[in-house]
């Protein structure tokens, strides 16, 4: 009899931290201690607390072991699994209160979260369809097919207030309604699993941890609009997600949730995966559909919208993974349940990928309306090193930054757009006082310039010129009037680009200009980078009163820029200095500073 | 909708054959750590035909995953596995409980605990009931474990002669 389950996180983050070795070590040690028939090892999806991976939870106790290493396993197996003594030093320290181990749900990371999209991640084995079924899996599909009409399904989604989670925030029920209203012999249901935003991994975690939820939702969508075929466009850079989703599709077909005559109702639906090839622009809806058709991923003008004329010219619904992940739960628990969470215009929850300068990097899911301060300070655990919060970037290269003055903003679609940012797909990069906002804007523009498909001039040429302007500014070659030129170009690109990539590429520039204009001006008029990040504007200086003249830096300098006699304060020749930082590394008296 | 499958006994042979082929394909592509609910795959009529069939699979699967739930209203059997317990032979007692409970298909949590202080009476097993009451069995052996499972866990009757209260008599 199995008396204990050991759940090991098998998401990409923990896999690269070595969870496979941990699983092997567990199995070996369990055999050695003769426990293999009593303890079962289950590989699950992402628990969310990625900063503390590899992660392991032992049931029935619910003990949360964090930062586990393979060398710890013999001890855990012998002490905890055999003798029942929890290895406290390896337990997530916030759950250890004196002699007691408290519940994970009470920790500051999990307390304010509401896991709807991520409810199965870290709880079930994603490669086992029966575990999905145990937690109400495919119940929604059965209910929709046998007890609801397609119109009723669409009305439920409309009433729930679900909006597209890919960033656009378009009401999902309305989109499905458009597609359902079209008359065509073939319609399609597609899923955008491209997740191109740097730093975003929400969709990846859903695909790796709970792939069946996507299959069930797409089948429900197919029923609602009258489609019999679905495609998941998934980026090839997610091999674990691709592997698990394919296994899930195979299992679903085997059990009859995909294929002909599902649940004996006469409704047929099947789906296939299509792998992306590394283009950010293929996350844009029309470019994505063009790519599935076999062409180079380039967008096209809209109207006609994909719901009317999409894949292969047929009515198509294209939604993001996270949007779909909400659908089965809405069908099962009702539109009112979903609408009871969130704000008036943004219902439900949102998954955020916390990254950057924050203690608890990982995946969080909060109801809409949670303030940014709660996410950063409470759930995220604040900024490490006692540094001050400067800004949070939402929406990746398409989004804007939110400065400290707006920390108390309730997160929802409209609030964020009003202050010059956008919800985006959920990437949330936190920046502290050591980040240069001009450099950040240039970083995002680097990305968009690279990823521009080149079809329209405003994006192809405009973003490149914009990038060149920012580059000059960070190198100390800014001229008066540059900021006005930058702003005009940004507005022009926004208004004239063909697709969302170009239309939103200037957003990081515009929002950093709006809230951190003084930094730009310092770069241009004073040729100074206030946070000492832009290398070409830095001067390395030796503090005369701290330098003891040991000549260590003189020997370390590769260009011979430092001069000074023994026991006399040294000096750096700015003409020869290449700002490599070797001198700072070698100085044991903190006598060299960057400013 | 007619799927073209033959009727009657032939359909059983057909579906078993189809299952075997698809199982081979799945096993070849699946991960080895998945081992908890394999037995369900040997069922006939695996192909979902109705919501009722889905619910039946759900109940079976849920039972296997019950260990991950919050189980405050469950009977807990805690075997003392401290050094004193293990030295006195608690490991075979734990195995005996696990096996007997599995044979009787009882819904009970089996766990281990540390030293509760009465080392001379080890192996010690404490049984906690949902109503808060606790029974302490001492000087347990695998044979006694089997009796406790049958008479106490299954039959609801405390085995007085094995409890700590009976020791000094």
Task: Describe the structure in your own words.
The complex is a heterodimer of chains A (595) and B (169). Chain A contains 25 helices and 19 strands. In chain A, helix 2 (19-32) packs across helix 3, helix 7 runs antiparallel to helix 8 and helix 9 packs across helix 10 (211-225). Chain A is α/β, with parallel strands linked by helices and 595 residues long. In chain A, the strands form 6 sheets. A 5-stranded mixed sheet of chain A has the order 12-11-15-13-14. The mean pLDDT of chain A is 93. Helix content of chain A is 38%, strand content 14%. Chain A has 5 domains: 4-103, Glutaredoxin (3-Layer(aba) Sandwich), CATH 3.40.30.10; 129-339, NADH-ubiquinone oxidoreductase 51kDa subunit (Rossmann fold, 3-Layer(aba) Sandwich), CATH 3.40.50.11540; 349-432, Ubiquitin-like (UB roll); 437-525, de novo design (two linked rop proteins); 539-594, Alpha-Beta Plaits, CATH 3.30.70.20. The termini of chain A are far apart. Chain B has 169 residues and is an alpha+beta fold. Chain B has 2 domains: 8-67; 75-166, Glutaredoxin (3-Layer(aba) Sandwich), CATH 3.40.30.10. Chain B is 42% helix and 12% strand. Chain B is built from 5 helices and 4 strands. In chain B, strands 2-1-3-4 form a 4-stranded mixed sheet, with helices on one face. In chain B, helix 4 (90-104) runs parallel beside helix 5 (142-154). Chain B is elongated, with a radius of gyration of 22 Å. Mean pLDDT of chain B is 76; it is low at 1-6 and 25-45. The chains are: A alpha/beta (595), B alpha+beta (169). Chains A and B meet through strand 1, strand 2, helix 5, helix 6 and helix 11 of A and helix 1, helix 2, helix 4 and strand 2 of B.
SSE map:
The complex is a heterodimer of chains A (595) and B (169).
Chain A: E1 4-9, H1 12-16, H2 19-32, E2 39-44, E3 56-59, E4 63-65, H3 73-82, E5 96-97, E6 100-101, H4 108-111, H5 129-134, H6 139-147, H7 150-160, H8 172-181, E7 188-193, H9 202-209, H10 211-225, E8 229-234, H11 239-255, E9 270-275, H12 285-292, E10 316-320, H13 321-333, H14 335-339, E11 349-356, E12 362-367, H15 372-379, E13 389-394, E14 401-403, H16 413-418, E15 427-432, H17 437-451, H18 457-460, H19 462-474, H20 482-496, H21 500-504, H22 507-515, H23 517-525, E16 540-542, H24 552-556, E17 562-563, E18 571-572, H25 582-586, E19 592-594
Chain B: H1 8-29, H2 51-65, E1 75-80, H3 83-88, H4 90-104, E2 108-113, E3 125-128, E4 134-137, H5 142-154
Parallel strand pairs in B: 1-2
Antiparallel strand pairs in B: 1-3, 3-4
Helix pairs in contact in B: 4-5
């Amino acid at each position: 009899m199995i008396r204990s389950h050991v759940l090991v996180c098998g998401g990409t983050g923990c896999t690269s931290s070595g969870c496979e070795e941990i699983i092997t070590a567990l199995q070996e040690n369990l055999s050695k201690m003769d426990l293999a028939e009593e303890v079962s090892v289950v590989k699950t999806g992402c628990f969310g607390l990625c900063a503390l991976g590899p992660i392991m939870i032992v049931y029935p106790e619910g003990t949360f072991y964090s930062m586990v290493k393979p060398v710890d396993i013999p001890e855990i197996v012998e002490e905890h699994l055999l003798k029942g003594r929890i290895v406290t030093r390896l337990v997530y320290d916030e759950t250890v209160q004196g002699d007691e181990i408290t519940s994970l749900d009470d920790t500051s990371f999990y307390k304010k979260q509401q896991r709807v999209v991520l409810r199965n991640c870290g709880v079930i084995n994603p490669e086992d369809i029966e575990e999905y079924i145990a937690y109400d899996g495919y119940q929604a599909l059965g209910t929709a097919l046998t007890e609801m009409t397609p119109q009723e399904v669409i009305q439920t989604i409309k009433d729930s207030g679900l909006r597209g989670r890919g960033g656009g925030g378009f009401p999902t029920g309305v989109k499905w309604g458009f597609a359902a209203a079209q008359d065509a012999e073939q319609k399609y249901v597609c899923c955008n699993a491209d997740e191109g935003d740097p730093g975003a991994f929400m969709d990846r975690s859903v695909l790796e941890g709970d792939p069946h939820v996507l299959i069930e939702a797409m089948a429900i969508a197919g029923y609602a609009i009258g489609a019999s075929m679905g495609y998941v466009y998934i980026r090839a850079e997610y091999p674990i997600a691709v592997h698990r989703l394919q296994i899930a599709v195979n299992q679903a077909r085997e059990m009859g949730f995909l294929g002909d005559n599902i649940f004996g109702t006469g409704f047929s639906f099947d789906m296939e995966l299509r792998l992306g090839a590394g283009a950010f622009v293929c996350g844009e809806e029309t470019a994505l559909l063009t790519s599935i058709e076999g062409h180079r991923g380039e967008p096209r003008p809209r109207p006609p919208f994909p719901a009317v004329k999409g894949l292969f010219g047929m009515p198509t619904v294209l939604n993001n993974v996270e949007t779909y992940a909400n659908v089965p739960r809405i069908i099962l628990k009702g539109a009112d349940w979903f609408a009871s969470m969130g704000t008036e215009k943004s219902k439900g929850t949102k998954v955020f990928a916390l990254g950057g300068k924050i203690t608890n990097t990982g995946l969080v899911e909060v109801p809409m309306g949670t303030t940014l301060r709660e996410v950063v300070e409470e759930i995220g655990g604040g900024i490490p090193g006692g540094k001050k919060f400067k800004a949070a970037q939402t929406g990746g290269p398409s989004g804007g930054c939110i400065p400290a003055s707006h920390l108390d903003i309730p997160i929802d679609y409209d609030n964020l757009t009003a202050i010059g940012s956008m919800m985006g797909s959920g990437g949330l990069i936190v920046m502290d006082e050591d980040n240069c906002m001009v450099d950040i804007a240039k970083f995002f523009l680097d990305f968009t310039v690279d990823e521009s498909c080149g079809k329209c001039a405003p994006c192809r040429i405009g973003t490149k010129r914009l990038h060149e302007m920012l580059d000059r500014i960070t190198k100390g070659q800014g001229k008066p009037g540059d900021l006005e030129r930058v702003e005009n170009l940004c507005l022009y690109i926004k208004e004239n680009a063909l697709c969302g990539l170009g239309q939103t590429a200037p957003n990081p520039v515009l929002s950093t200009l709006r809230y951190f204009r003084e930094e730009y001006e310092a770069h241009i008029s004073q040729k100074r980078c206030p946070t000492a990040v832009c290398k070409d504007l830095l001067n390395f200086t030796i503090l005369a009163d701290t330098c003891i003249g040991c000549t260590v830096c003189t020997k370390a300098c590769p260009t011979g820029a430092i001069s000074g006699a023994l026991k006399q304060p040294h000096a750096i020749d700015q003409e020869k200095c290449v700002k490599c930082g070797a001198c700072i590394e070698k100085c044991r008296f903190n006598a060299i500073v960057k400013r | 909708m007619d799927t073209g499958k033959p009727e009657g006994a032939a359909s059983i042979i057909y579906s078993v054959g189809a299952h075997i082929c698809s199982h081979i394909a799945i096993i070849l592509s699946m991960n080895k750590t998945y081992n908890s609910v394999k037995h369900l795959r040997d069922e006939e009529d695996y192909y979902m035909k109705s919501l009722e069939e889905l619910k039946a699979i759900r109940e079976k699967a849920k039972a296997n995953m019950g260990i991950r739930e919050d189980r405050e209203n469950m009977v807990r059997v805690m075997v003392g596995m401290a050094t004193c317990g293990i030295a006195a032979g608690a490991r075979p007692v734990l195995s005996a409980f696990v096996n007997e409970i599995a044979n009787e298909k009882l819904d009970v949590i089996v766990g281990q605990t540390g030293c509760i202080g009465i080392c001379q009476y080890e192996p010690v097993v404490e049984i906690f009931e949902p109503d808060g009451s606790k029974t302490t069995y001492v000087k347990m052996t695998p044979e006694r474990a089997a009796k406790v499972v049958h008479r106490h866990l299954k039959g609801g009757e405390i085995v007085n002669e094995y409890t700590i209260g009976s020791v000094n008599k």
